[in-house]
Specification:
Layout: E1 2-8, E2 11-18, E3 21-26, H1 37-50, H2 66-76, E4 84-85, H3 86-93, H4 97-105, E5 118-119, H5 133-142
Parallel strand pairs: 4-5
Antiparallel strand pairs: 1-2, 2-3
Helix pairs in contact: 2-3, 2-4, 3-4
């Protein structure tokens, strides 16, 4: 595995690559660095996202398997600046909303697979980053999403 990081507007993030695909985004700088064309491109795309120049990532990602893969692909289909509820995703992937919430929480590639765009029906939902829902709100504000 190789890791490379950057400091963005939400603090440090690093990407983790294994066998030519991105398998993780961590909310810290890597302890041991590395370099590859994929990590360089991933960091360049993250920078473009934070600058507002990129609305959809084009990188080889670890989608997982089974329900996790279905939920991750459904999250990736949510357009920039829009949100969906856990229930809407659940209906799309034909699974219980609680299972969708667990799959969102298990997303190893936040931002790249935009779990921040998934909300509860009457609540904001959680988020794995330092700062939790405040970071989720910051990402949604960055994308111009309407927050209730």
């Amino acid at each position: 595995m190789m890791r490379a990081g950057m400091v963005g507007p939400l603090g440090p993030v690093s990407l983790v690559e294994r066998d030519g695909i991105l398998v993780g985004l961590e909310w810290r700088m890597p302890e041991v660095g590395g370099t590859s064309a994929l990590l360089a491109e991933g960091l360049a795309q993250l920078e473009a996202y934070f600058d507002g120049r990129l609305h959809r990532f084009d990188l080889p990602l670890d989608w997982g398997t089974g329900l996790n893969a279905a939920v991750r692909r459904a999250m990736t289909a949510i357009p920039w600046g829009e949100t969906r509820t856990y229930g809407e995703i659940a209906k799309a992937v034909r699974a219980p909303a609680q299972a969708v919430g667990q799959a969102c929480g298990a997303n190893p590639l936040p931002i790249l697979i935009p779990c921040h765009r998934v909300m509860g029906t009457n609540w904001f939902g959680g988020f794995s980053a330092p700062g939790g829902v405040e970071t989720k709100a910051a990402l949604l504000r960055h994308e111009g999403a309407i927050l209730l």
